[in-house]
Each structure stands twice: as structure tokens, then as C-alpha cells.
Amino acid sequence: MIKKIILAVVVLLLGSGVALFVFKSEPKLNKNFDNANSFFKNHPFRLGLDLSGGSHLIYKADISAVSAGEVDDSMSALRDVIERRINLFGVSEPVVQIQHSGLISGAEEQLIVDLPGVTDVKQAIDMIGQTPLLEFKVERQKGEPITIKPGPDGKIDEKILQEQQFVSTELTGRYLEKATLEFDQNTREPRVSLQFNDVGTKLFAEITKNNVGKMVAIYLDGAPISTPVVREEIPNGQAVISGSFTPTEARQLVGRLNSGALPVPITLLSTQTIGAILGDSAVNAGVKAAVIGFLLIVLFLILWYRLPGLIATLALCIFILIILALFKLLPVTLTAAGIAGFIISIGIAVDANVLIFERAKEELRSGRSIADATSVGFSRAWLSIRDSNISNFITAVILFWFGTSLIKGFALTLGMGVIVSMFSAITVTRIFLSTLGFIGEGKVARFLFSSGFSK
Questions:
Q1: Could you give the domains of the chain?
Q2: Which range among 72-81, 88-97, 217-226 shows the weakest confidence by mean pLDDT?
Q3: Considering the entire predicted model, what is its pTM?
């Protein structure tokens, strides 16, 4: 019995430690947050766009020139570039997600960008739109047909005709390692030096080798900015962009290229701005719903299951603290849908206790002692608890795998809640109940372990 009591005290102390972490790491709860340890400062709740306010942008990625086997890699590279670009502006906790096309919805490849705290849509668009698309094109082979439609006046646009002289290659800004500003030693004109990564170096070497004596056009954002003639193969992966740049323009281009050149073109489809006031209202509504739901569950547990219900309430508090701590440590971006999943997981955590207590009550009616009835109740309820939680977890996984970003937030918090609830219901509740052997088997004990309005 002493070992069981010590174990219960250890669980309570650990729960208190988790509660202290949740409290001290949250600015709205800790008045001395500014003076807190850096560990606590680095783990506040991470709120999604719908709770913190900001801009929500949806882009369409043009993958028409990308082979089917390279779509995933190109989209991942695009996401990384956009994230790097946004981070340069110091946006707190940006979220950049890929929305793949599906056979059912038939949607195109999309990039979803959430910028918390950025309520100026134009500013948000500029953060992403200023990232250049860098392409390298070679001269079209002689005899290769060119299809050019004349304009309304029957004439052919000279610009279009010039662009048709070049064809795209695999070498794009995706393989750019860094860009630097240089000045020509003779003319002192600014130019931009490019250094490719290993893959880009091989591609550039192959392009220059196969096009000696020909022009290789360098396109930036769809427009040719330089068309140098290849004199010899360049195996070191270094290229130079020269033109009528001013030093300021060249410096800006270097900065833009280093912040990431887009591997595929993107087009803005839609924008949405959520104000900070609306976000605060959503947070307050979510917290209010969680508190009311928790209090109603506690009231039900204590009134209907009495002492075991009180123990289950204590286990439920530890469950909530563990979940909140995991939200901070992983971290999990909390959205309104995610809070809904968390609230539902509180109800799921109670389901296991209900099954255990009902089985224990049946064993008490059959004449078993309180200790035996509790032990058998846990053992016989386990299979039902296991199966129900596995089915809930499978549902959460399916929702997360196939759902949109909104559904994924709900599925993630629900799935985490299912896993932690099994620990709190089976382990924590059992540890606390096992320490109650001292109450004996008298009428008072039987009353405390009865349920509802029974005696």
C-alpha cells in the first residue's frame, strides 16, 4: 500500500510540474513572462491564423513544365523557398502548406500561406511576389518547328518571335546556391555572379558543353535579362548575369536571388484577411467552450460515480495538462478546429472511465470486494477501451491524411487526445484508485463506490 501511495504522490508531483510549465510558458497567464527563463519564453501556445489574425493566401503552382515524377520535389522546393523568403521579413510563425491535386476533387497543385499578424494583404503578397523566377534557356535547334499565332492586326509580335528562339532547360533557380554582387574590372559595371549546387553545376556544365558558340538566355520572371554566348564548357557551376544594372538594382537582385528563386511559377488565386479582434474572439469562445465542457463533465462524474468520479476528474486534469504541454513542446499550431478536436478528446477520455466504472459496479453487485471489483472492472473494460480508441485514432489518421489544412488541425488534436486519454484513463486513474484500500468495505465505502441515486 505504501508503494502505491508513493507512486500516486509521484504522479501528482509530475502533474504539478507540467501545470507549472504550462502556466509559466504562457504570456497571458504569467505576469512575469518577460523575466521568465528562456525555456519558458520559447514555448508559448502557437496560434493559427484564425485565432491570431493575419493573412491567408492561396497560390496555384504552374507545374506544366515539370515531369510527373518530380512534382512532389518541385512543390517541396517551392514551399522551402517561400518559407525562407517570408522569414527574411521576421513574420512570427508563418505556415506554408502544400495542397496536392486529388483524383476526387480534381484540384491543381496549390500552396497555402498563412501569415499571422500580417493584416495588410498587399504587404503579404509583396513578401512572396518579389521572389524571382530564374530560368536558363538555350537556342532552339535548327529545323525545329515554331508555332506563333499572329495578332489581331495580322502581324507577328517581334518579342514573341524572339522568345520562341529559346527553349527551357532543367536548370532553374531551384539549383541556385548563392548569388553575389561583383563589378567588372574593365567597365566597373555591376554584375551578378551565380553559384549553383552540385546538381545545378552538372546541369550547367552539360548545357554549356552542348551549346558552345550559341547563346544561353537567362530569364528572370519570364523576361530575358542576359543572352551571353557560350565560349567553352563551364564545369565549376558559376554563371554571370550582366546588363544595364545600376548598383542598387544589382544589389536588390542579389538579395532576391539569395532569398530563393522560385522553382516553378505561381499565381495568386485568393486572399483572406482575419483581424486580430476576430482572432481574439475565436480564442475566447474556444476557451469558454472548453471550460464549460470540462465543468459539465466533472459535475456528471462526481454526481454519478461519486469517489471514482472524483478520481477520474483528477486524472482528467492531468490529461488536459499533458495535452496542453504537448501542444507547446511539439509545437502544434492551434486553430479553432483544433480546439474543437481537443474538446472532443476530453469527452473521449471520459468514455474509458465510464466503461471501467460500470464494469466495476457490476462486479460489486455480484458480491466482490471494492478492490477486486475495481481490478476486474479495469481488466474487463480494457478490450472495449482499446477497440474504441483504436477506431477513433484510425479516423483521426484518415482525416489528417486526406483532409485540408482546416481538417488536419482537428484531426491532429483529436488523435493526440485519443493516445493520451488511454494513458490517463488506464494508468493514472488506476494508480489513484489503488491507493483507496484504507477506506475498507463498510457502508460508507460502498456508498462512495455506488453510482447515481443508489445507496
A1: 2-45+275-448 (1.20.1640.10), 54-131 (3.30.70.3400), 134-261 (3.30.1360.200)
A2: 88-97
A3: 0.64
